[in-house]
Amino acid sequence: METIVAFSNANRPHAQPLAGLFKPLPSSYFSFFASTSSQCQTFFNKRSISLSLSSLTMATPLQASASSTIGATNDELKVSSARLVGENDLLIVGPGVLGRLVAQKWREDHPGCQIYGQTVTTDHHEELIEMGINPSLKGMNSSNKFPYVIFCAPPSRSADYAGDVREAGLSWNGEGSFLFTSSSAPYDCNDNGPCDEDTPVVPVGRSPRTDVLLKAEKVVLEFGGCVIRLAGLYISFMQFNDRGAHSYWLSKGTVDVRPDHILNLIHYEDAASLCIAILKKRLRGRIFLGCDNHPLSRQEIMDLVNQSGKFSKKFEAFTGTSDPLGKKLNNSKTRLEIGWEPKYPSFAQFLETL
User: Fold this and answer.
1) Which pLDDT belongs to residue 83?
2) Which pLDDT belongs to residue 31?
3) What CATH code is assigned to 90-233+266-291+328-343?
4) Where are the annotated coiled coils located (predicted)?
């Protein structure tokens, strides 16, 4: 997905025109919840995502064993991971912001299912357990194979991203769906022109950053999985903890990039609902596009922020003149085939909900 720190899912590399603005996502990216359940509950009450810890945490033998993953040895984790897998069970590789929202929405649609989260460390396993996600460590070589797998992990923490995707593919039993969350960055358009699902991508070899994504996508398509290329992700936990380019720019006041660069957005909740809609279709070897179909220039975004009256600060100006332009994404074909519409049709409408 087109993850700018401010829009970040998922888990994804920065949009090409903004590559110089943002640092790679920190390890804290995989946990947007506070370290205690009370803080977690406060977040969901505030933003009306309506995640109930009590409803997500199911007293099952699997979760009882999952709690022992904190400080457990690899051998112990391997033993505890050998469980029966149900027909609607879901494995989330990289259960960060996007992955956790997918987990919440998936459980709403499939009560009683088991949801698993694969991470690179045990740092946030307790949080996952509280949410009803059964954690495991990457490289555990579990014997389990799942009917539904979604790969949300970013390339920033991987030395071999395509290899990691291939390894995740081995955990799919081929019966439901495998979905890889990519970015819209590979589309070969940087003149603010139109771009849709059929727009050609950047040739391999031109950009190391897009090469990483395209090679991972190729692996997914080869074993029959699907790809969703996401636009810039954003969400508001509370006004002081927003994720989105608007929040980053607001904190800076003045930013040395051109104001007319076009950005494309999708709210985290909408990205999650689109991912689930694709998973349910049980399709093979397809590429989809996720965006809100309301592209905006940087200046338009910050004008909306300033005019909203929802923020204590005011953005001053963009001062750049020579950096690249963007693209205007349209995913009407994806919407028609999947039967999906966003909860937040535009960034302006999202601001009205704050």
Assistant:
1) 62
2) 40
3) 3.40.50.720
4) none
